[in-house]
Amino acid sequence: MAGGGDGQGGTSSSSHELSGRLEGILADREVPWARRASKAAMIELRLLAPIAAPAVVVYVLNNVLSISTQIFSGHLGNLELAASSLGNNGIQVFAYGLMLGMGSAVETLCGQAYGAHRYEMLGIYLQRSTILLVAVGVPLSVMYAFSEPILVFLGESPEIAKAAAVFVYGLIPQVFAYAANFPIQKFLQAQSIVAPSAYISAATLAVHLLLGWLVVYRLGMGLLGASLVLSLSWWIIAAAQFLYIVTSERCRRTWTGLSCRAFSGLPEFLKLSTASAVMLCLETWYFQILILIAGLLDNPQLALDSLTVCMTLAGWVFMISIGFNAAASVRVGNELGAGHPRAAAFSVVVVTALSFVITLAMAVVFLVFRDYLSYIFTEGETVARAVSDLCPLLATTLILNGIQPVLSGNMDWDARWHMHADAYLVLDHF
């Protein structure tokens, strides 16, 4: 079990001990399965909680940044809500899925390197990933700059497309914040260092809400101001996490400074990063497709407004599952690295069950308050009725998303572990 580097020797030792006990309990065939499962579940929860809780907080709070931005925009008017939805969910989510997926390669490689005590390689992988993601950010920025003609070409309303383009222009800096943030986030998660990211996200959210209110309502900068504040908030998160890495004793062995070695092995790293991005991109892009299709309906503003409310809530709950996905990836990687296959498989079962129970509870809550959900984002009884009608489908989506990301993430992790072993050896050579 990864302990988090220097300054965590006691924690690491305790985690190793618990991990060994967990494997031993699961391997003891003389004890009935029910007793073994109950004992193992208690141990797994002790190992999982310090990773899963902060990881869920990080992803949820980061998603709330986008949600709050849409709320600020929505209270400017229904057109602004539709525009921010089209820009945020129709354009920005493309970059989010691609960047997060490519950044996940760092989690695989850093997890292996950390388990093999090749601590210096973690910093190299972080830098390689950042270089690649910055390069990918350049064509994405060009796409953002031409968002209005792209949206019109796709059949969106010219009025909404024009307003959405203004919003998207302010998101161009966010693309490069993603390029810095996701490799840093995965670098820390591979070492089971998650809590600092949660504290940083919480503090940034408070700053974001204050700046958003000031810029949108007091300074009157509208959609452009809202998206610029969102970009600034993501840069604050990335910069604060990097500052933590370079100053913390916990990362002293894994971050040894900038290195020219980061520029070697880039083609192999690109291949692995691309493979890592495929599954997560498919999971996030379907949100984007739904939003784009909604803009083609007879009443695009109402369709976008109502679907925005549902998809935003679904995306928020989806982040809970993504947080469990990240925690499960750390647990599975650490157990496989320690030679504990039973514990790795059992961890997936426990995480999936937890995610399912939480998302089921959220689905029930949304159904109970189905008639009032839309008022969080915008005024208007028409939108409220449309959202209420969509809520049964929303609840079904939440329940399915409660288990799918965790399972697919771990299958993807296992595939990357086996399919890219040769790539890892090449990368490790550099």
Automatic annotation (TrEMBL):
A GO biological process held by the record: xenobiotic detoxification by transmembrane export across the plasma membrane
Compartments, record wording: Membrane
Transmembrane segments: 45-71, 91-110, 131-154, 160-181, 193-216, 222-246, 277-297, 303-324, 345-369
Single GO term (MF): antiporter activity
Assigned GO CC terms: membrane
Membrane topology recorded in Swiss-Prot or TrEMBL: Multi-pass membrane protein
Keywords: Membrane, Transmembrane, Transmembrane helix
Cited CDD domains: MATE_eukaryotic (cd13132)
Stated family: Belongs to the multi antimicrobial extrusion (MATE) (TC 2.A.66.1) family.
PANTHER family noted in UniProt: MULTIDRUG RESISTANCE PROTEIN
Protein name (database record): Protein DETOXIFICATION
Organism encoding this protein: Miscanthus lutarioriparius
